[in-house]
Design a protein that fits this description.
7 helices, Four Helix Bundle (Hemerythrin (Met), subunit A), mainly alpha
């Protein structure tokens, strides 16, 4: 009888328990980092090719660059930095039980600010088309539309990701796996922000 009482009780398999404050760790699922590094590598190759071609025709690139509206680029930089900050705050809220109610509000705020980037970019493109500037105008504008167009596609994808994160944040309880998915989506949005921080000076400011 004593042996039965003192014998270790079998451990039961349980699903992921709701997560409390997290210890330092690599955010997101491992697979998201493969996607991020793949995207960053693709853009890096385009950046290098752009700089190489710019070195071959500096006058053409400089004259064409003067036709860009750097105000639009600067505003969009602030827009994405603000949206990225809201995502950081939303992620921290998701990681803390007592702050989790703020996560949906912060996420939808990040979405709204990110959507402003798209609106400004559409206005910028419209201004260029009205002025007769298209990807076929010259080599500089070909790279301008390719780089900003690829980035805009990533912004639109990022807004879809933020929508999924908002739906996830609205759930009454979250497992560690779900929080990892939220962190992975946040990392994708930060990558979109990082890419613009490189594209803006590269196209609008570098002389």
């Amino acid at each position: 009888m004593t042996d039965v009482i003192n014998s270790p009780r079998p451990r039961q398999c349980e699903p992921d328990a709701p997560s409390g404050p997290s210890s330092p760790h690599i955010p997101g699922e491992p697979g998201i980092w493969i996607v991020l590094f793949g995207d960053l590598t693709m853009f890096t190759v385009i950046f290098v090719v752009y700089l190489h071609e710019r070195g071959k025709a500096p006058s053409l690139f400089a004259d064409s660059q003067a036709a860009l509206n750097s105000t639009f680029g600067a505003i969009n930089t602030l827009v994405l930095l603000t949206s990225s900050l809201l995502v950081v705050l939303a992620t921290r809220a998701m990681q803390r039980e007592n702050l989790r109610r703020w996560a949906p509000r912060l996420t939808i705020g990040a979405f709204a600010v990110g959507a402003l980037f798209v609106l400004i970019k559409v206005i910028e493109y419209r201004e260029k088309v009205i002025a007769g500037i298209t990807p076929t105008t010259n080599e500089f504008f070909m790279y301008y539309f390719v780089l900003t167009g690829l980035h805009l596609a990533h912004v639109l994808l990022g807004l879809a990701v933020l929508t999924v994160l908002w739906l996830l944040a609205r759930r009454p309880a979250h497992t560690k796996t779900q929080i990892a998915y939220f962190e992975g989506g946040a990392c994708f949005w930060h990558m979109v922000d990082l890419l613009w921080i490189v594209i803006f000076p590269l196209l609008f400011l570098v002389r």
